[in-house]
Amino acid sequence: MTIRAIVFALSIIGLLTSSITPGFAAGSGDASWTETKSPDLKAAVELIRNEKYDEAQPYLQKALVQEPNDADVYNMLGYSQRKMGNKDKALGYYTKALEINPKHRRANEYLGELYLGLDQPDKAKERLSVLDKSCFFGCDEYTTLKNAIEAYEKKQ
């Protein structure tokens, strides 16, 4: 097999895997991941996308009761709590999301951003390292966190 054929095959694999990975960020515009999620989580994410973090809480709590081991629910709880300024709660939710799924891309990105907000850039860089290893062909989460770390360091 030629190098060109190998590169082509890897490119196809990358396209296929990126198309099945859920776009999960609030406001990402890609809601395809919600097809298999509870109606409560779907409602919460829609509120979060509209920056109605407080209104999303009851839906997230219902989703948590329905799916107590869903890393996506914990991630969105962490995201919304962080956006409301509740850093300690956010930290707990992100930690739980990563206990369930250590490679959860959004939880790693968002936890890294939280660490920057807590003036702990070394911990943010640890999250970036996890993303670097789990994003074989690169990913938005890695790029976003890398840019956030660079911006943080320029301010120091």
UniProtKB/TrEMBL annotation:
- The record's TPR repeats, renumbered to this chain, cover 71-104
Q: Which Gene3D superfamilies match?
A: Tetratricopeptide repeat domain
Q: Source organism's superkingdom?
A: Bacteria
Query: Which positions carry the signal peptide feature in this UniProt record?
Result: 1-25
Q: Which UniProt keywords are given for this protein, alphabetically ordered?
A: Signal, TPR repeat
The record's listing under PANTHER family reads:
CELL DIVISION CYCLE 16,23,27, CELL DIVISION CYCLE PROTEIN 27 HOMOLOG
Name of this chain's protein: Tetratricopeptide repeat protein
Q: What is the lineage of its organism?
A: Bacteria, Pseudomonadati, Pseudomonadota, Alphaproteobacteria, Rhodospirillales
